[in-house]
Amino acid sequence: MSVITDTFIAPPCHDEIEILFQDDHLVLINKPAGLLSLSGKNPQNLDSVHHRLVRIFPGCTLVHRLDFGTSGLLVVARNKAINAALCQQFSQRSVTKVYSALLCGHLRDDEGVIDAAIAKDPALFPLMSICAIHGKPARSRFKVIERFHREGEDGTLLPLTRVELIPETGRTHQLRIHCQQLGHPILGCDLYGGRLLPGTELTPRLMLHASALNFVHPVSGEKIEARNRCPF
């Protein structure tokens, strides 16, 4: 049996968490890129969304997470009952999440579905893999917003596609590995090919942002339709 060893040390994140909404039950934030959602086991990875917020909102817990390099909308529960109610919405897939991303290259189709099971493999950690036999079902939808070229520092023109991504399931690294499977990795993704094309090596961050989050407030019953502008 392979033993997973996590050697990742997160660089300091000097960006602040933006609180977009708060009441007695939950907090809605804009997570900066380059900040862990939860503190790691290594004491050098103490800084995280939860580590910062629990000082302001004692007893708060994360309902879901965003990858270290991903920015955008996160909902945080202020007590265990709210956490359970929101987790139920996520498990029943009644929560809609929309991400904005820049993909390497120009996609041929204007929209489509990526249906590819994802599996953990300790030998490949931290990478996930596409595996129809051992993987868990994973499904994502994409829609092209625009195709364009961006000039790199060396003057080369880099073809990029701006897309909206909607994960219908919530597997680890789902959008990143699904975009790689599509043949167009997310720009800046160091794990799944987003820094391999000429002109992509110096991309400052993972170009993936949680831009919309729709759910029902567990106390008021109000439909929350949160939106957050993409920073890239």
Automatic annotation (TrEMBL):
It comes from the Bacteria. PROSITE patterns: PSI_RLU. CDD domains: PseudoU_synth_RluA_like. InterPro entries: PsdUridine_synth_cat_dom_sf, PsdUridine_synth_RluA-like_CS, PsdUridine_synth_RsuA/RluA, RluA_PseudoU_synthase. Residues 25-181 form the Pseudouridine synthase RsuA/RluA-like domain. This is RluA family pseudouridine synthase. The lineage of its organism: Bacteria, Pseudomonadati, Pseudomonadota, Gammaproteobacteria, Enterobacterales.
